[in-house]
Amino acid sequence: SASGNNVLVLLDNTAMQQSYSLFFNQLKDRGYKLNFFSAEDPSLTLTEYGEYLYDHLIIFAPTVEEFGGLVDVPSILDFIDEGHNVLLAGDSTVSDLSREIASECGIEFDDEGTYVLDHFHSGQSDVADHTTVSISTSEDTMLQEPVITGSKRQSDRKPVLFKGIAHTIKEGNGLNIAILRGYDTTYSSNPYEPIKATSTSIMGSNTILVSALQARNNARVVVSGSIQMFSDRYFTSSSDNEYLTAEISKWCFKERGILRAHNLTHHRIGETEPPQMYRVRDEITYSVVIEEFDGKQWIPFQSHNVQLEFTMLDPYVRTFLKPSTRGLYTATFTVPDVYGVYSFKVNYHQIGYSTLSLKTIQSVRPFRHDEYERFIKTANPYYTSCISMLVGVFVLFVFLLFTK
């Protein structure tokens, strides 16, 4: 991972390791060091001497009402605020503790005791109450972003099994991403109670099963309404649970979708070093190397929608940076005919990728008195008026001198 390999795993009880061993073995095979604790362990702590002990946090404790030790909701939110990552899984009995963590991340679980139901896409082993839903990984139900959900071809994918609680994303929150959602026939309700007009508030494609948050500091949080989605039972069935959970965890723990920039330069055409000050109408070349972490090493990032802005309060120039195979992005433009203090800005926001924000301040001066052209074409009317006035004065002088 680009941010470290030390993981704290909080469980309802440590015996749960056996039921989710395949998922945990995935992480171990990818080089993670897993530290298993009961969520109520009195020795729990995230920090020691002001330093975080873990890089990532997995919470598989949907029924725990209170964490042990020094771990609580504020400490977990501070953990996220410091740029660390959290994977949270619940079920239909999700506690108020897990609800509060999810709510702080813009995610609202449905009422306790409700399940995701679909009478047209139920799992084969759950014919009686249809609480196990089989979700195909189509464009309607799964986010089609390879950096998050993997690059496996659609024809090779199998349905994903899900048994748990639905959730929604708060309106107007542009940081949340719906990864897996229900069909038009999916809804959330308590299967053991009669359905009333007010008992179903989440229906159709608004039924979100798995979602994610990428915070402004690039911390990542993934929330799943089904802890069984990660279980050995679902992994060994004819489903894509093992593949999808592996891909989501790679993204959550920053094994992919991480960008960095270096070798940022700008200069006049024909030069190699940035000047102390640019002059209006100068021709400028701006370049920066952008790389992406692929889980093992940094490789050149390829995209055709990275933009550069040359701004002074408002953008005076906005242009696309042209990429090369080496990850070098360049743009050439003319400085506007307005002097002042400008900023080179690159703000790249793309679903699944960390935010890339670059800013360089540079002054632009007007022409000095000796840098203007000797004769300015736009001043021709003034030149003509001056010459015509001189000619007129000369004619008047001759007329007065030789006329009686």
Produce a short descriptive summary:
The chain contains 7 helices and 25 strands. The chain has 404 residues and is α+β, with helices and mostly antiparallel strands.
Fold and architecture overview:
The structure is a single chain. The strands form 7 sheets. Strands 2-1-5-6-15-14-12 form a 7-stranded mixed β-sheet, with helices on one face. Helices cover 17% and strands 32% of the residues. A hairpin with a 5-residue loop joins strand 14 and strand 15. The protein has 7 helices and 25 strands.
- Which class best fits the helix and strand makeup? alpha+beta
Give the biggest sheet: 7 strands, mixed
Discrete helix count: 7
The percent range for helix content is: 10-25%
Spatial sequence of strands, sheet with the most strands: 2-1-5-6-15-14-12
- Radius of gyration, CA atoms, in whole angstroms: 31 Å
Unreliable stretches (pLDDT < 50, length at least 5) are none
* Fraction in beta strands: 25-35%
Shape: elongated
Distance separating the two termini: 103 Å
Rounded average pLDDT: 91
DSSP strand tally: 25
List its traits.
single chain, 404 residues, alpha+beta, 7-stranded mixed sheet, 5-stranded antiparallel sheet, 17% helix, 32% strand
